Amino acid sequence: MSLIRICAFSKCLYRRSLFQRCIPPVTHVDYCRLCFGIRNGPVRHISETHWLQQRHFSPLLPRKDETTTRVLKQTQLLDVLEARIQQLQSDGILDIQHVNVQVLKAPKSGKGSGSGKSPKSMLREKGDIVKPKQTLTKGAAKSQSSKTQPSRWLQKLSQEKTNKIKREEVLQKKNVKETPPTVNAKPHKDVKETPTTKLQAGLMTPGRSYKSVSSPAAMIWTSPSVEGSEGSSKWADKMRSAADLSAHKASKRKSATQAPDVQAPSQQPSPELLAQAQENAEVEELEKKRLSLVSDLTSSASTERLLGDREPAVCSDAQFGIRSYLEACVFSGDLERANRFLLSQHRILSRRKLLDVGMYNTVMRIWAKKGTLNQIGRIFILVEEAGLKPNLGSYCAALECMGRSDSCPRVVSRCLNHLEEEGLSLDNLFGQFVFRQDERDMVLKAVCSVRPEYRPVSDYLTPDDRHPSLVQDFYLQRAGHHYPKLDFTREELQERFGQQLEVEQGCTVTIDSVETARPITQHIANMRTLLDELRSQWRKTLLAALKERKMILASTKSRDYKLNLYPYLCLLDDKEYVDIMIQSVSNLPLSGESLKVLARDLGNRVYTKCSIRQKGQDLMVEKLGSVYSGYTDLLAKDTEDCLALPREQWLKLEAANPSGPTLQGEELPWPYIVSVELGTYMVDLMVKNLKINSDILNPAYERKLIPILYHMYTFRSTRQVGFIKPHPLLTQIQQDATETRLTFDSYVMPMLCPPVPWISAKYGGYLLSPTKLMRSTDGATQHERLLERCRGLHPALDSLNQLGSCAWRVNGPLLDVIVSVFNRRGSDKLGVPPPLSEAPRVPHFNANDPAFTSAEKAHMKKEVVRAKKKYSEMHSLRMDALYKLSIASHMRDERFWFPHNMDFRGRTYPCPPHFNHLGSDVTRALLAFAEGKALGAKGLDWVKIHLVNLTGLRKRSSLEGRLEYANGLLEEILDSADNPLNGRKWWMDADEPWQALGCCMEIANAVRAPDPAQYISHFPVHQDGSCNGLQHYAALGRDVIGATSVNLMPCDVPQDVYSGVAQQVEEFRVRDAEKGLKIAQVLEGYVSRKVVKQTVMTLVYGVTRYGGRLQIEKRLKEIEEFPKEYVWDASHYLVRQVFSGLKEMFTGTREIQDWLTDSARLISKSGRTVEWVTPLGLPIIQPYHRARNQVLKHDMQDINLQISHDDKERPDTVKQKNAFPPNFIHSLDSTHMMLTSLNCYSAGLTFVSVHDCFWTHAVTVDTMNKVCREQFVALHSQPILQELSNFLLLKYCSELPADGKKQKYQEYRRLMLMLGKVPQTGDFDLQRVKESTFFFS
653 versus 856: which is more confidently predicted? Predict the structure, then answer.
C-alpha cells in the first residue's frame, strides 16, 4: 500500500470513529415558553434524530464491549500506519505531510448520559478530539482494558526507531571528518545532545535525499515566548539547526555536480559554505537582538502595541450590517422589529456566530429604558447560550433598568457581585462606557441604593508620562510656555458657538453666488417661477411615492433574519428624505453622474443628518453647550492664562460635569454597501417619479410626461457603469433661470467658532457633524481599530488642535479683484476658469452622410469626443471656482476656523473641502490671519523676501540679494497694488500671481503707514522646504553630497537641486548629441529647471518612470516652440536621464529606498500589511489589499462594488512595496511638522502648515525658523531607521513558519535578514542644519 493511500485511509478511519451522544433531559420550569423554544430549538432537532435512530435499533449493532474492542483495533491500526510512514520517511520516497488521525472517546452507555450534542458539535469540543500537531496518546484505548498487551506493531515501531538511531550514529562518525567545523551548530546547553540533534546540525549522508515530514515524531516548530527565554532559546537552536542543514545540503549538491576526477581540498570549506555560515551567524545575531528587544519591552506599554495585536477583533461586513440595522431600529423606535430580528438571528446557529455582545446590548438598552428587567434577564440567557460573556454594556443596561424600576437592593447587589466576579469594576463602567441620555444617572442611582458611599472615580485626568522622548519636555516642563489666546472675548466666543450650533443642526447652508446677476428679464422671471412650481410638484410626488414604498416594505412578509431598508427609511421625517433628493437634482452636473457615486452621496447625507439627530435625541447638545462655555475660558483674551492644553482642558471640564450623556459618543458608521443601497433606492424613486411635460418649453411638441432623469450606461475605460443624466429640458430650464443661490452641506463650510479639540480617536472637530480623525476610504475600519488600541496619540491630537485653533479672515480687496476677473471672462494664465461660453463648440455632422470618407468620419468623431471632454472639464473647473469664491464672499465679514484631521500617514488636512489654505493659488491668496501683529523691525523685510519667493525669480540669490531686488521693484509693487487690472500688471508674471498681488497690497499698506514697524499685519509669510522629501532622505542617510544639494549644509547662496539635476541632464544630452543621437540634438536649448522639477520633486515620493514621462511630456507641450512630433521621444529620453542623474547625486537615498521597497515586498509576500509607528507614536498601516467584487442587486441595476479596503484579503504586494518609501517619508515630514507645531504653540506663535510649507506672521518668522531647524535635528538625531528595523523585526519575525517547510523557512530567513540589514549612513553632521539659512526659506 502506498503512503498516499495510507494517509487517505487514516482520514476515513477518523470519520468513521465519531459517535453520537444521548440527549440529557431538559427541564423548563424556570423558562418562559419563548425562551425555552429559543434555548432548545437546535437541541430538539438533535433529540428527534436520536429517537429516530433508537427506533431502528438492532441487536446486531455492536454493544459496549464490542465498541471498546473496535476502538482498540483502530488504535493498533494507527500504530501500523505510523510505522509504515516512518519506513517511507527513512527511505526518502516522498515529501509528504502526515495527517494526524484523531479518535473520539467512546461514550458511556446508559440512557440520558450523553451530552446531547450531534457529531458536528462534538467536532468542536476541544476535550474530545486531539488537536492538530499534538502527539496522539498511544494508549488511549488501553485505559479501558488493562489486560490488553502491546501489539507486535508497537514492538516493530520501537525496533525501527532503535535501528534508525544506530544508523544515524554510524553516519555521524563517518561524516564528522568531512563537515567543516564552522558549519556545525552547537546544541543548546539545556537540550540533550542526541544523534538526531547532531543529524539536524548538518551531518547528513552524502548521496541520500532527506525529506521533511511533519508528524508527531518530527521536530515541532514553536513560536517564541515573550514571558521567558527558555522556549525562545530552543526555538533559536532549531532555527540554527535547520539553517545549517540547508547549508550542508547545498554544499553536497555542489560537490555532486563537480567532475569525478576533481577533488576539492578537504581542509578548505567552499566559499558557498563560508557565505552560508556567515549568513547563519547573522540570523543568530538578529534572533538574539529580537529576543533582547522583547525582553526590554515586556514591561512597557508598547509591548501590547507591537506584539499583542496579532489577531485583532475584526468585524466583518455582515456584522457591521447587523449592528447598524439594530441601531436603525432602535433610533426609529421600532422595538418589536429589533427584538424579533435579534431572536431570529440567535435561533439559527450559522447566524448566531455573527452576533457579538454589543448586538445583544443594543436590544437590552431598549428594554432598560422601559424598565423591563425580565426581558433583560432573558437576553442574558441568550448571551450565555451564544457562548459569550456579558461585558460592561450588559451590566450597565441591567443596572439602568434596576435604577428606573426601583428594584430590590438584593437584586442590585447580586448584579454587582456578578460584575465583579467577571473581573469588571464599577470604576471601569463609569470611566469607559459611553452613556446616552440619563443612563449614567440611573446606573448611579441603582448602585447607590446598595452602596450609598460610592462615588465614581474619573480616569480622565490620570497623569500620563508615557510620552515619546521627542516631546517629553513639551509636556513635562511647561514653566516657560506661553500659549496664545484668541482675539475674542468670552462672550463673543459663546455667541459664535450658538451660531455654529444652529448651522449644524440645520444640516445645510444656502448662500449667494458670486456670478454676476444678469438683469432679470421676463423670460428669466418666467423660468424661475416655472422651476419653483416644478420643484413644489416634485416634492409632493416624491413624498407620496416614498410613503407608498414604505407601506409596501412594512407589509412585505419576509423572514425575520433578513435585512431590509425599512428601518433606514424611518430614521428621518419623509420630508427630509425628499429635501435631500431635490437638493441632489439641483446639484447634478450637466454631464450626469455615476449611479454608484450619486447613491453613495445620498446615503452619506442621510447618515450625517441621522447622526446629528441622534445627538439631539441623546441630550448631548445641552451638555455640549455647558462644557464649551467653560472651554472658552482657555481661549478668550479676557480670561486668565492657563498652562493646560485644549485637549486637557476639555477633558477636565467633561470630568467636572459627569451627569448626563457622554460627549465622546460611539458613532457607528454604516457599512459602505448600506449607504450605496439606500442611495440607490432613493435614486430609483427619483428616476421613476420625477417627470415634466414634453411641451413645457415648446407647445408645438406632443404633450406627454417624460422623466427628468435618465438611467443609462456608459463605458469608463473597459468597464460599463450605470449613469444618471438630466434631461436636456431640465438643463435648459435651470440655465435659463440663472439661479443665484447655492446650497451646501453644513460640514463643508468653515466653522464660526473654534473647533471641539480632539480628545480621542472618536471625538473632535465639528460640534455635531460626524468627523473622522483619520481619513480613509468608505467602509475601511482598520485605521479606526488601530487608533483605538493606541495609547500614544496625544502629540498628534494636540498638533491637530493647534492647527485648528488658528482663526482666519478673507482678504476683501483681493476677493473683489478675483471676482471681477471671474465674471469678466476668466483667465487661464491667472488660474481663473473661463465661463462655458468660451468652451469649444461640439461639431455636428451626420455619420451617415456619404459625402464624408471613413477617415473624415473618424476624425470628426474624435473631435466630438475631444470637445465634449473639454466642455466637461471646463464646467467642473468653473463650478469649483464658483464654490470657492462664493464661500469666500459669504464669509467675507466673518472670522472662521478650519477643523483638521489627517490621512493614514499622519499628514494633516483641513476638513472643509472647497475653501481652505491647502487649495490653489486663488484660495491661498484670499486667506489672512484673523489676528494681526505688528511687523516689528524685520517684518517688512520678510514680506518683501516672501514676494520675491512667490515670483519664482532669484531662486539662487541670498536673502540679502532678494531683499535688494524687492527694494528695486518698489515702484512696480505699488503700481500692482493700486491698479491690479489697469496698470502695468507686473504681478501677473509671477509663479503665484494672486498671492503675489496680495503681498504687493500688504507692502503698499505697510510702507505708507506712519511707522511700518507698528503696522498691524494679518498677512501670512511662508517658509518652504527645499525639496523636503530629499531633505529627509539625506538626513536619514547622513549623505554629505545629498545634504548639500538640498540645503541641509549652510551655504552663502541656496543650492537648487532642480537646477543641479537639470544641469546634469544637460551634460548627458550634450554627450549623446555629440554621438549623433537625434533626440538629444532636438532637445538642445529645451532642458530647463521647469521641465525636470516636478519629476525630481515626486521621484522621492515613488513616481515611476511612466509617471515621470507623463510629467515631462506635459511640460514640453507647454513650450510652444518645441516640435510636437518629438514630444514622446523627448519625454522618454529625459525621464531616463533624470533618474540616472538623481541616482548619481543621491546614492544614500537610493539605498534607503531600495531597503524600504524590498522590506515591504517580503512583508506583503508573507501575507501581512506593512505597518510602522512614527517617532511621535502615531501608528500607521498601509491600506492596500487585493480588491474583491461584491454585487449589490437592485431592480434598477446590479452595482459591482470593488472592495479594496477588506483587511481579510491578502495585501496587494505591488502597491505595498511601491508605496512604502514615499509613505514612510510622508510620515516623517508630518512628524517634523507636528513637532514644529507644538513648539510654536508653546512659544505663543500663530502657526499653520501646508505639509512642508510653514506659515506664520512676519514678525515671528525668525522664531519659527529656529524652532523648525531645532525640531528637524531632534527628529533625525533619533535612530529612525534602526528603530524601524527593530519594530519590523518584532512585528513580522516573531513566529517561525509552523510547518517547517523549506520554502517557508527560506522566506522567513530572507525577511529577517532584510529587515535587520539597515543601510549604512554617512558622516554628515546634523547640527549644521541649525546654521543653514536656506533649509526652509
Answer: 653
Q: Which residues, in sequence order, are CB contacts of 170 under 8 Å at separation 6+?
A: none
pTM above 0.90, yes or no: no
Secondary structure of residue 1076 in the 3-state scheme:
coil
Q: Is 1071 exposed, middle or buried (0-12, 13-18, 19+ CB in 10 A)?
A: exposed
> Nearest 5 degrees, angle CA 878-CA 882-CA 886?
175
Residue 333 phi, psi (nearest 5)? 80, 15
**How far is residue 637's CA from residue 640's CA, in Å, rounded to a whole number?**
8
Average pLDDT, the chain: 79
Q: Is 1195 a catalytic residue?
A: no
Which pLDDT score, from 0 to 100, does residue 570 have?
Answer: 92
| pLDDT score for 105 | 43
Using alpha carbons, select from 814, 600, 599 the residue that is nearest to residue 724: 599
978 a catalytic residue = no
Torsion angles phi and psi, residue 1076, rounded to 5: 95, 15
Residue 1118 reports pLDDT greater than 50 = yes
DSSP-derived 3-state class of residue 1121: coil
Active site (annotated) includes residue 1252? yes
Q: Find the helix or strand (DSSP H, E) in which 835 lies.
A: none
- Give 693: exposed, middle or buried? Use CB within 10 Å, 0-12, 13-18, 19+: middle
Q: How far is CA 1052 from CA 67, 630, 887, 1335, in A?
A: 95, 52, 44, 12
Taking residues 1015-1022, report their average pLDDT: 96
Of the residues 574, 903, 1024, 1158, only one is catalytic, namely: 1024
Give the DSSP H or E segment for 731: helix 728-737
Q: What is the pLDDT of residues 610-633, one digit of tens each?
A: 999 999 888 899 999 999 999 999
Report, as an integer, the average pLDDT of 440-462. Answer: 83
What DSSP character marks residue 765? Answer: B
Closest by alpha carbon to 1270, among 1322, 1331, 1321, 1214? 1331
Contacts with 1005 (C-beta within 8 Å, 6 or more apart), sequence order: 977, 1015
Asked whether the predicted pLDDT for residue 955 surpasses 70, the reply is: yes
25 CB-contact burial (10 Å; exposed 0-12 / middle 13-18 / buried 19+): exposed
With beta carbons less than 8 A apart as the criterion, state whether 574 and 546 touch: yes
**Catalytic hit among 596, 762, 1093, 1215:** 1093
| 910 half-sphere exposure, CB direction, 13 A CA radius | 25
Work out the end-to-end distance of the chain between its first and last CA atoms, rounded to an integer number of angstroms.
81
- Helix or strand run (H / E) with residue 902: strand 900-902
8 Å CB contact between 1049 and 1333 = no
CA distances from 774 to 179, 1105, 1122 (A): 57, 31, 45
Whole-number Å distance between alpha carbons of 633 and 649:
10
Q: pLDDT band for position 97 (50/70/90)?
A: very low
Dihedral over Cα of 787, 792, 795, 797: its sign = positive
In the prediction, which pLDDT does 118 show? 41
Show the DSSP H helices in 952-1039 as ranges: 959-968, 970-978, 993-1007, 1028-1037
Cell numbers representing residue 240 in the block:
540554527
Please state which of the ranges 196-205, 376-385, 1139-1148, 1177-1186 shows the lowest mean pLDDT. 196-205
Spatial CA neighbour of 326 closest among 345, 348, 353, 313: 345
Whole-number Å distance between alpha carbons of 1038 and 1285: 17
What pLDDT, on the 0 to 100 scale, is given for residue 318? Answer: 82
Query: What average pLDDT does range 401-408 have in this prediction?
Result: 88
On whether the CB atoms of residues 1087 and 1069 are closer than 8 A, the answer is: yes
